[in-house]
């Protein structure tokens, strides 16, 4: 495992799983290990709002191309509709947990930059299916 380095960024993702499908954090971590050889995110927020720590904050994730150094990744389960089109499917419980998590990181790291995956330069995808600046 590679060290994360000083924390500068927090990036929000969706799992791109269909609305209402109760995929668990452990399953997402398994998919990521199969695809990327490691767990991608530091937190996965399940449909019921449960925050599952999938990687310690000291370990580098694999969630924004070449920009994973110092970058905490938080993924919520959902993010697409039944036809796999991007949709903000966050449940009220997930919204509350995401806000709380981001708030905690902002307290611990006052200069942290919070973004959606799609806000990174060169990212041509809808993830996390909502505007982090206005919709968190
Ligand atoms: Zn993403």
TrEMBL record:
GO terms for molecular function: N-acetylmuramoyl-L-alanine amidase activity. It holds the Pfam family Amidase_2. Gene3D superfamilies: Peptidoglycan recognition protein-like. Residues 5-128 form the N-acetylmuramoyl-L-alanine amidase domain. InterPro entries: Amidase/PGRP_sf, Amidase_domain. GO terms for biological process: peptidoglycan catabolic process. This is N-acetylmuramoyl-L-alanine amidase.
